[in-house]
Amino acid sequence: MTPVHFAFSSAFLLGLTGLAFHRTHLLSALLCLEGMMLSLFIALSLWTLQLGSTSFSAAPMLLLAFSACEASAGLALLVATARTHGTDRLQSLNLLQC
């Protein structure tokens, strides 16, 4: 495994462990998701550059578009949660109360 692949794999796994173990605020969960998507985008971009094929060149842009949609939906949920509950702590959210 090259050092570049190791760096992006460890960045993805670091975001995943942050998402799994540090779940106090919704904003920290969204930041971990964005870090994971950024490492996937850079790794996919480098993979298409190393492959040299033009058929996979749209894949990083498609991933980036989905990442932007995910970020906007997450921020909308963050604002809605902060307005209704007064905080973005995940312990204050209850799925049984709508």
Automatic annotation (TrEMBL):
Gene Ontology molecular function, alphabetical: NADH dehydrogenase (ubiquinone) activity; oxidoreductase activity, acting on NAD(P)H
The entry's keywords: Electron transport, Membrane, Mitochondrion, Mitochondrion inner membrane, NAD, Respiratory chain, Translocase, Transmembrane, Transmembrane helix, Transport, Ubiquinone
E.C. designation(s): 7.1.1.2
Catalytic activity: a ubiquinone + NADH + 5 H(+)(in) = a ubiquinol + NAD(+) + 4 H(+)(out)
Subcellular location, record wording: Mitochondrion inner membrane; Mitochondrion membrane
Top-level class of the enzyme under EC nomenclature: translocase
Pfam family, one: Oxidored_q2
BP terms from Gene Ontology: ATP synthesis coupled electron transport
One Gene Ontology CC term in the entry: respiratory chain complex
Topology versus the membrane: Multi-pass membrane protein
Transmembrane domains' residue ranges: 6-22, 29-49, 61-82
Domain of life of the native organism: Eukaryota
Alphabetized InterPro entries for the sequence: NADH_UbQ_OxRdtase_chain4L/K (IPR001133), NUOK/Mnh_C1-like (IPR039428)
Family matches, as PANTHER family: NADH-UBIQUINONE OXIDOREDUCTASE CHAIN 4L, NADH-UBIQUINONE OXIDOREDUCTASE SUBUNIT ND4L
Purpose: Core subunit of the mitochondrial membrane respiratory chain NADH dehydrogenase (Complex I) which catalyzes electron transfer from NADH through the respiratory chain, using ubiquinone as an electron acceptor. Part of the enzyme membrane arm which is embedded in the lipid bilayer and involved in proton translocation.
Similarity comment: Belongs to the complex I subunit 4L family.
Name the UniProt record assigns to this protein: NADH-ubiquinone oxidoreductase chain 4L
Origin organism lineage: Eukaryota, Metazoa, Chordata, Craniata, Vertebrata
